[in-house]
Specification:
The chain is of the alpha+beta class and 289 residues long. The chain has ten helices and twelve strands. A four-stranded mixed beta sheet has the order 3-5-6-4, with helices on both faces. A four-stranded mixed beta sheet has the order 9-11-12-10, sandwiched between helices. The N and C termini lie far apart (82 Å). The relative contact order is 0.15.
Length: 289
């Protein structure tokens, strides 16, 4: 005879395992979405530019508008203040890869919209709901350099442990050091994106990240760059990058030794706030002579 306590324990364990499986699948879907957004795509015959990584949001995942209901009201009920938002509901997919194929076919416009910066994903059986949003931004973020230093601490904490980025496994990596020249290059690009209302690694004048850091006097052996837009804090930016395999790989790359990061804002731009983190490895002193 099985006691009621054992039965309850078995039921709880089964629910826990099911919950962990769903969390793994929603994380996998977020990675697929961010990988899709990380390069220019063609949607309904229109060429769409790359878009920023979406930060997973538990609050958005709890949003449940009724069929044909008011999404704005559902967001408010979930305690989420959105500047813009949309929701996508799809049924008939049991795996994230199957769902992604349906999303690319039916909802590529919303999925590639660069004005969204956060995503919430919920699943019940083969019914999935994605809520995309750009949050309202609170003031008081502080100085760009303070935010950059906070981002450095977050990234170094991530690098201290092994991590899988997409399908690539990384060991823990040494801490990055702050470099002011890289920080100035990051600030330049964030300000240029904000003032000129665009989102891409290549600046309006055609300059690349390598050219920007060279102009700021950094003699580099290797350079990388992550950009983001719409997120209102270093924590949300880093979370979005970690949910994107390419950005995550830059963070975990053990070949980088230094970094600089900055944000800039422009109230009239699409995303209001723009972030850049530049990674670098300087040339050996002997190579500079």
């Amino acid at each position: 005879m099985i006691s009621g306590r054992i039965v309850r324990c078995l039921v709880f364990t089964a629910l826990l395992i099911a919950g962990m499986a769903r969390a793994h699948e929603t994380d996998a879907l977020a990675e697929l979405v961010n990988e899709y957004r990380s390069a220019p795509r063609t949607c309904d015959g229109v060429r769409m530019p790359m878009a920023g990584a979406l930060t997973p949001s538990r609050r958005l995942a709890r949003v449940r508008p009724a069929p044909g209901g008011d999404l704005a009201q559902a967001l408010r009920q979930a305690g989420y203040q959105a500047a813009r938002s949309t929701t996508i509901s799809v049924s008939g997919a049991s795996r994230p890869e199957e769902l992604m194929a349906l999303l690319r076919e039916r909802h590529c416009g919303a999925l590639l919209d660069p004005r969204y910066s956060e995503i919430g994903i919920a699943r019940e059986g083969e019914a999935w709901q994605l809520t995309l949003a750009q949050p309202l931004h609170a003031s008081g973020l502080g100085d760009w350099r303070d935010a950059g230093q906070a981002m450095l601490e977050l990234v170094n904490a991530v690098r201290s442990e092994p991590r899988t980025c997409g399908n690539v496994r990384f060991d823990g990596a040494p801490k990055l050091a702050w470099n002011e020249r890289l920080a100035q290059a990051a600030l330049e690009h964030s300000r240029d994106m904000a003032r000129n209302n665009y989102f891409r690694h290549e600046a309006g004048n055609g300059a690349t990240a390598a050219e920007r850091v060279s102009r700021h006097g950094y003699r580099w052996q290797q350079v990388g760059e992550n950009i983001a837009a719409g997120q209102g804090s270093p924590e949300k930016v880093v979370a979005g990058w970690l949910a994107s395999p390419r950005h995550c790989a830059n963070i975990m790359d053990p070949r980088f030794t230094e970094t600089g990061a900055a944000f800039a804002t422009e109230s009239g731009s699409d995303m209001i706030i723009y972030w850049t983190q530049v990674f670098g490895t300087a040339q050996p002193a002997s190579a500079e002579r």
